[in-house]
Amino acid sequence: MNTKTTKMTAQQIIDKFELIAHPEGGYFKETYRSSELIAKTALPPVFSGPRNYATSIYFLLTSEKFSAFHKINQDEIWHFYTGSSIYLHIIAPDGSYTKVTIGNRLEDDELPQFVVPAGHWFAAEVSTPNSYAFTGCGVAPGFDFEDFQLPSRAVLCEEFPQHTALITRLTHH
Q1: What DSSP designation does 57 have?
Q2: Is 150 exposed, middle or buried (0-12, 13-18, 19+ CB in 10 A)?
Q3: What is the DSSP letter of 13?
Q4: Which residues, 6 or more positions from 135, have their beta carbon under 8 angstroms from its beta carbon?
Q5: Within 10 A of 168 (CB to CB), how many other CB atoms are there?
Q6: pLDDT one-digit tens code per residue, 116-153
Q7: Considering just the CA atoms, what is the radius of gyration of the chain in Å?
Q8: How far is residue 143's CA from residue 47's CA, in Å, rounded to a whole number?
Q9: Backbone phi, then psi, for 122, in 5-degree steps?
Q10: Which of 45, 56, 79, 166 could form a disulfide linkage to 32, CB 3.0–4.6 angstroms apart?
Q11: CA angle 97, 100, 101 (to 5 degrees)
Q12: Contact indicator for 13, 65 with CB cutoff of 8 Å
């Protein structure tokens, strides 16, 4: 029986899964992209061209590397694997705010999985200082950087002035 309980470090996970820096913050690696495509004519007008049926990534955040506010044209399904729980901050198009905790402490009402609706601004950060969170994200229709918006702090604060403090903390510029 294996009784090893040593937890991997963030760097060990980055190395093991060959994660690279993501423009929004954190580290990622695409693990799946369906070979089939959805034709542009079958997609809503927000999509500029055909998209794969689905995509999936590994995603790692650290206390120093948060995921800055961004949005995509698809629903994004987050899955928690290991490490610190994360806070997912979501601003709906109407300006309403939701905070969701994703993790494996089910007794504390953490969710092991959560879907961010398409077109919602969202950011993520680990809940515990000096820690990391290893998660996964699935997107359908499949992710394409053409669907990704990473606005400046000024643009988001102008659109949602009621959330200026949060936006300032969770944007890179």
Answers
A1: E
A2: middle
A3: H
A4: 58, 59, 60, 61, 78, 79, 80, 81, 86, 102
A5: 12
A6: 999 999 999 999 999 999 999 999 999 999 999 999 99
A7: 17
A8: 11
A9: -150, 155
A10: 56
A11: 150
A12: no
**Model pTM?**
0.93
Q: Which residue has the tokens 């515990």?
A: 128
Q: Are 110 and 104 in contact (CB under 8 A)?
A: yes
Query: Is 128:83 a contact under the CB 8 Å cutoff?
Result: no
> Rounded distance, CA 171 to CA 173, Å?
6
pLDDT 10s digits, 55-106: 999 999 999 999 999 999 999 999 999 999 999 999 999 999 999 999 999 9
Going by C-alpha positions, the residue among 57, 22, 30, 55 that lies closest to residue 136 is 57
- The three-state secondary structure class of 9 is coil
What residue has token string 């820096």? 21
Which amino acid is located at 94 in the chain? D
Question: Residues 86, 127: contact at Cβ < 8 Å?
Answer: yes
Measure the CA–CA gap between 83 and 149, rounded to whole angstroms: 27
